[in-house]
Structure to design on (246 residues):
């Protein structure tokens, strides 16, 4: 396993990931084939790759809101997007932002700062979201074996552009449990996307990408600031560029 982690770190460096980077990772465990230790090995390798930086992963939990009494616990609500981010969520020292549908987990140098303000927002990827703050930190986005489609960062671009298809017309009342176990009710505007097919793979048509491999997984790496600027400019000219109507 140690040999795999060492190769993992080498592959990260070959893709331009530096030890002090702020890095948001989307992932697919099956893209690695069989790997000893599974998701735990992937998480440990990513952390080892950023000894002076900050590792971030989405810990989305929108599935938990599909009920008559939607609620979110920052400590106990699981992520619904795969075993790697769920393993990372439980990793010692990880901070999680407070948002009922689009929380983010982080570990390392700026983990607490980058996750601390998300509770202020009343939309999934508002201006205080770690996804949006990634731009301020001049961070990078890595799509690790999962293709370009599940790029949640793009929701921030869409929200900032006030695109008509992004948010529900009416807010949803949600019970939030914080780190101390205190509960409060707040109104949130959740994402809509009904009748919409997300096509974030189209960033390859207008943005700079670095492509490579980490072990057996195909990888894309993007600069968050450059992606924000380029995608925002594209949307200003073609509002429906990153989606298709179904």
């Amino acid at each position: 396993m140690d040999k795999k982690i060492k190769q993992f770190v080498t592959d990260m460096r070959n893709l331009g990931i530096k030890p002090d980077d702020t890095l948001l990772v989307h992932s697919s465990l099956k893209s690695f084939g069989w790997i000893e230790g599974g998701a735990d090995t992937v998480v440990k390798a990513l952390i080892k790759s950023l000894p002076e930086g900050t590792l971030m992963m989405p810990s989305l939990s929108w599935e938990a809101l599909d009920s008559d009494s939607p609620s979110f616990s920052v400590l106990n609500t699981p992520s619904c997007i795969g075993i790697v981010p769920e393993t990372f969520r439980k990793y010692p020292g990880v901070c999680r932002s407070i948002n009922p549908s689009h929380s983010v987990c982080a570990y390392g140098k700026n983990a607490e700062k980058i996750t601390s303000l998300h509770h202020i927002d009343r939309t999934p990827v508002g201006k205080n979201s770690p996804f949006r703050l990634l731009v301020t930190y001049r961070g990078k986005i890595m799509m690790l074996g999962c293709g370009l489609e599940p790029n949640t960062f793009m929701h921030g671009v869409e929200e900032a552009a006030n695109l008509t298809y992004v948010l529900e017309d009416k807010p949803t009342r949600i019970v939030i449990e914080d780190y101390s176990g205190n509960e409060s009710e707040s109104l949130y505007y959740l994402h809509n996307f009904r009748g919409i097919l997300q096509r974030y793979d189209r960033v390859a048509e207008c943005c700079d990408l670095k492509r490579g491999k980490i072990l057996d997984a195909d990888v894309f790496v993007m600069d968050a600031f450059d992606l924000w600027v380029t995608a925002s400019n594209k949307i200003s000219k073609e509002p429906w560029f990153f989606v298709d109507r179904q």
The chain has eight helices and twelve strands. The helical segments are 2-14, 38-49, 83-89, 111-115, 130-136, 153-160, 203-206, 224-237. The longest strand covers residues 217-223. The mean pLDDT is 96.
